[in-house]
Design a protein that fits this description.
Blueprint (H helix, E strand, L loop, with lengths): L1 E7 L5 H10 L14 E9 L2 E10 L2 E9 L2 H25 L32 E2 L1 H11 L3 E6 L5 E6 L5 E5 L3
Parallel strand pairs: 1-2, 5-6
Antiparallel strand pairs: 2-3, 3-4, 6-7, 7-8
Amino acid sequence: MQFTFTSKNFKITDLLSNKIAEKMEFLKKYFIVDDNTECHVTITEENGIHKIELMVFSKAGILRCEEKDKDLNMALDIAISKLEKQISRNKERLNRRNKAALAETFIIDTFDIKSDDVVVRTKSISPDAMNLEDAILQMEMLGHSFFIYLDQESDQYAVVYKRNDGGYGLIEIEE
């Protein structure tokens, strides 16, 4: 597993990075962890409160959690526990999911933007090539309401989103 450590107002020592890597070994119980599996660890400290954010990019999907605590070790243990619960929850969701629901017809919805809406955050992404099923899985695992990806079949960008009725919608981008 490849680790990327980032910190703010905090120095990450070799001892701490090794401890985090050792604790992240639990992932091997749930899916294949190889050299291509990336883990981004961000640790910040403000007013004596440590915040740790873990993002794992694997073939099984993207897992993310964050935790704050006065004790960094406690925050790390709770964050890892959250990751484990997230994996378990998504595994159950996949087992229960009716695969026929993916074959439903997707409807393109239009969204109204109000003039008083303000952009509060900008994020750049690099969509990965995948099929619709994988995109829905990624969206569900991240807990997001939409997911942008590069469709493997059409080689064009697409957006899958969660509809209010519990189904999924697909927006395909025409050239």
